[in-house]
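Fold it.
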Amino acid sequence: MTAKIEEPSSDILTERKRPFLKINSHWYFLSPSILLVSFFYFIPFLLVFIIAFTNMDQKFNWQFVGLINFLKLFTLKDPLIPRIIKNTIIYITSTLPLTIIIALFISLLTTRINQTASLFFRAVFFLPRLIPPVVWGFLWMWSFEGTRYGVFNSILEGFGVSPIHWLIKFPMIIVICANVFLGISLALLIFTSAIASIPKDYTWAAEIDGASFWQISRFIIIPLLKWPIMTMTAWHLMSFINSYIYIFLITGGGPYHATEVWALYGYNAAFKNYKYGYGSSIMVVLVIINLILLVVCLKTFGMKRMIERSRIEI
């Protein structure tokens, strides 16, 4: 008597194929974004990385020179490097904390006032995001123009004060203020949305217990904003390290390299002095610094602890 072998049903075959189809469907939907990121980010970085080991000039003549460009940076044979590093550190350590703290402070205040007034204040701070960079830079240049035709000098002239050469005496402060005001807009939007999503039961219970506004903000709201604060800190850290557009538009890195940061120095080396190889090496170092600081930022906020599985079983 022979045993009858049953053929697997079509449902079983379909179940076996599902994981393969699932994987393929994921790649199918991710492929456009992967191609775009590869084309606009990874391939350009690979080209810059290769050019960093050459001495390419304005005629695109080049030959491999090995680590000469990097040795010039790390051995400080370029006399401007110490000043550029100092400017970059001052710029980042000033703009980043000011942006996060001021945005968080304004978010806490605007959530406690009338909704119409709150929307008005947030709209005012969001205006810089709607203005083209060239216009934003021109407004700051015009405001701090060193002649009597500048906005602030015109006001001072009404009080009998002679014109002040703002962009010569306080160039770094002006650059920091321009970028902080711009960075506040995005952080303000994120923080306000996060505060609005916090259940009211937490704050109501604290108010019943007699907690003040600042106690509620410090012990309830701010701890619950750890994710948004980490996100905005990492976002603006990367943004400020790589930013040079507004510095270029307002001061051009001057006077006498007083506001020239690392990213702008790399831009000037490549596209102003036509030292494409040297400029590329500066940008490669900038990418490595970005990665290191991003890891430090995530470690500081305890990224691993924030995403780990909850120990409370439901």
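The mean pLDDT is 84.
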